[in-house]
Specification:
This protein has 191 residues and is mainly β. It is built from 1 helix and 11 strands. The radius of gyration is 17 Å and the shape is elongated. The N and C termini lie far apart (65 Å).
């Protein structure tokens, strides 16, 4: 049964752990303070939607479409974004917790992560060109065979990126965080 698309609706404080979000296309909708923890969001299409203060922890996003999506203040722990529909995939994150999530082998070029906690996030084999990691905590995040050409890490911290196993051409770093590029060489940096 195909449900009709839902346009320009506002969903507030709905607990989708108790109520299933209908599988359809959502365009220009806003979701505020909704709980999607452990929910099955597979095969749902979100176009130009805003999510504010929502919990997506461990949500199933198999074949989910996220196009022109904004996440603000969301808890998005353990989400396997590599399972999403990659067609027109685009999103931005502000003040989100993305710990233990994965962007494995995804193309996330031009994505902006602003003031996010991103500990133990997997960017292995990801194409992340011109991505902005503004004031992001990347502790124990994995960059392996990752393309971060022209990405901005100048205000990011706690990252460990090996330039010999990643594409880092024209990426931006600051004097304060340059040690994150040198960790693999076992070099001591003194103040």
């Amino acid at each position: 049964m195909n449900l009709p698309p839902i346009d320009e609706q506002h969903f507030k404080a709905i607990d989708y752990t108790k109520k299933t979000l209908p599988k359809t296309e959502y365009t220009d909708c806003t979701f505020t303070n909704c709980n999607f923890e452990n929910s099955d969001l597979s095969n749902i299409t979100f176009l130009e939607c805003d999510f504010t203060d929502c919990n997506f922890s461990n949500a199933n996003v198999m074949n989910t479409t996220f196009s022109a999506i904004t996440f603000k203040g969301c808890k998005i722990m353990g989400v396997l974004f590599q399972n999403c529909n990659t067609f027109l995939l685009s999103f931005n994150f502000t003040n989100c917790i993305l710990n233990l999530s994965s962007f494995y082998q995804l193309k996330i070029n031009h994505t902006k992560f602003n003031s996010c906690t991103m500990q133990q996030v997997d960017f292995t084999e990801c194409e992340a060109k011109q991505v902005v990691f503004n004031d992001c905590d990347l502790k124990q995040s994995i960059f392996q065979l990752t393309n971060i050409v022209q990405s901005d890490f100048s205000t990011a911290f706690n990252f460990a990126i090996n330039p010999s196993t990643n594409q880092v051409k024209q990426a931006s770093f600051s004097k304060e965080n340059i040690s994150g590029l040198l960790y693999s060489y076992n070099i001591k940096i003194k103040d």
